[in-house]
Amino acid sequence: MKIDAIMRLAPVIPVLVIDDVAQARPIAEALVAGGLCVLEVTLRTPVALEVITEMAKVAGAIVGAGTVLNPGDLRAAIEAGAQFIVSPGLTAPLGEAAVASGVPFLPGIANAGDLMRGLDLGLDRFKFFPAMAAGGLPALRALAAPFGMARFCPTGGITQASAPEWLAEPAVLCVGGSWLVGKGAVDVAAIGAAARAATALHIQPEDRGP
User: Fold this and answer.
1) Which among 137, 125, 118 has a CA at the least distance from the CA of 64?
2) pLDDT tens per residue, the chain (210 residues)?
3) What is the pTM of this model?
4) Catalytic residue among 29, 54, 127, 169
5) CA 163, 123, 68, 156: dihedral to nearest 10 degrees?
6) Residue 165 bears catalytic tag
7) Between the CA atoms of 32, 190, 84 and 146, what dihedral angle is there, to the nearest 10 degrees?
8) CA 129, 38, 147: angle at the middle one, nearest 5?
9) Which domains does the chain have, with CATH numbers?
10) 40 is catalytic
11) Options 29, 40, 54, 169, the catalytic residue
12) 71, 77, 93: which is closest to 43 by C-alpha?
């Protein structure tokens, strides 16, 4: 599956920071049951790779690794079972390794220079990060205007309330959201409700090509 197809599966990709492997499957099951099948597990905790492996066992889940910083992280994530890769930024070593691996890759960009480096690697799907801190919707619109081939997953500071405005942008295929899973003990009911609310967010019907 290409990264474009993954981005179009649901309006929100949950961005997950999980400290306890035992929470992996219940969280993934609740999110998938709520309609969110694409899950990004950030490599921000010592157990993140194990979490990816566990979540990948959940039927219907498409589990990727986020916060991938270098080719070593890339290899480890793929070995753990990651089905796609997300990075907060784009460097030549990581971009070249990701393209060579063939794994669906969503690199982070925050400006035109980042985006042009991605295009040079043959990439045209990007994570706009950190979305709010990098200028919010005005910045994304300014970037999208000269790069009509690019499509985005804005991430960083987006909420259930603000997501619809982002999703109304023609250049936006989905958003990344960290609001879906709270800290502490797993509340399956709350996660399921948050997932259903996120799934109900509407993508505008106009063409989102190319």
Assistant:
1) 125
2) 999 999 999 999 999 999 999 999 999 999 999 999 999 999 999 999 999 999 999 999 999 999 999 999 999 999 999 999 999 999 999 999 999 999 999 999 999 999 999 999 999 999 999 999 999 999 999 999 999 999 999 999 999 999 999 999 999 999 999 999 988 899 999 999 999 999 999 765 555 666
3) 0.95
4) 127
5) -20
6) no
7) 110
8) 40
9) 3-199 (3.20.20.70)
10) yes
11) 40
12) 77
Residue 131 contacts residue 157 (beta carbons within 8 Å): yes
Q: Among all chains, which residue has been given the structure tokens 């890759």?
A: 105
Dist CA 85 CA 100 (whole Å):
13
Q: Scanning the structure block, which residue is given the tokens 């936006």? A: 172
Q: To 10 degrees, what angle do helices 188-199 and 24-33 make?
A: 40
Query: Which residue reads 């649901």 in tokens?
Result: 10
Q: Where is 122: in which H helix or E strand?
A: none
